[in-house]
Amino acid sequence: METEVTELLESWRNGDEQASQALWPLLQSELKNLARSHLSGQRPGHTLQATALVNEAFIKLVNADFRGASRKQFLALASKAMRSILVDHARSQKRAKRGGEAIHLTLTEVASANADADEILLVDELLSRLSEIDERMGRIVELKVFGGLTYDEIASLMDISSATVRADMKFGLTWLKKELDR
After folding, report:
1. Containing domain of residue 166, as a range?
2. Backbone phi, psi, residue 131, to 5°
């Protein structure tokens, strides 16, 4: 299946619309699980549903450069697109709100249903800063906090050891906690 998905991704990227139609059934359940994982960290009553998030991410990926991407790499791109969609959604909610209060949160709250738009935006900003310091570490923390992936899933996706994921995660979370405490 991995080879078939990679070939279909390349065909799709080269403009073959039938390839995208053939690709959808092969990745649909994985993309929906990824979307559910992203949405599990959102507040109750979130207006986006898993199917809508998958569809928006798929549309966003139409213009992405995934030439030569494997199934794992495509799913990582999809996860990043979903994060971007949720952050954009949070930004639009924040613009709709008036006023503002100080933000006090933990990463556990962000990963739970207690995170509001301001909190999601703050963590997104901090993850961007962490990625500037160490791109791999930022990606690992993003996949864990926003994507809800396990250490082993992250290791497999990024083709690194679980020990490396754990070490980067520990340092990344320590850095984020220090920044959140400011």
Report:
1. 2-181
2. -65, -30
pLDDT of residue 73: 82
Q: Read off the pTM.
A: 0.54
Give the range with max mean pLDDT: 56-70, 92-106, 115-129, 150-164: 150-164
> How many structural domains does the chain have?
1
Please work out, in degrees rounded to the nearest 5, the angle formed at the alpha carbon of residue 136 by the alpha carbons of 6 and 156.
45
Q: State the SS3 of the chain.
A: CHHHHHHHHHHHHCCCHHHHHHHHHHHHHHHHHHHHHHHCCCCCCCCCCHHHHHHHHHHHHCCCCCCCCCHHHHHHHHHHHHHHHHHHHHHHHHHHCCCCCCCCCCHHHHHCCCCCHHHHHHHHHHHHHHHHHCHHHHHHHHHHHCCCCCHHHHHHHHCCCHHHHHHHHHHHHHHHHHHHHC
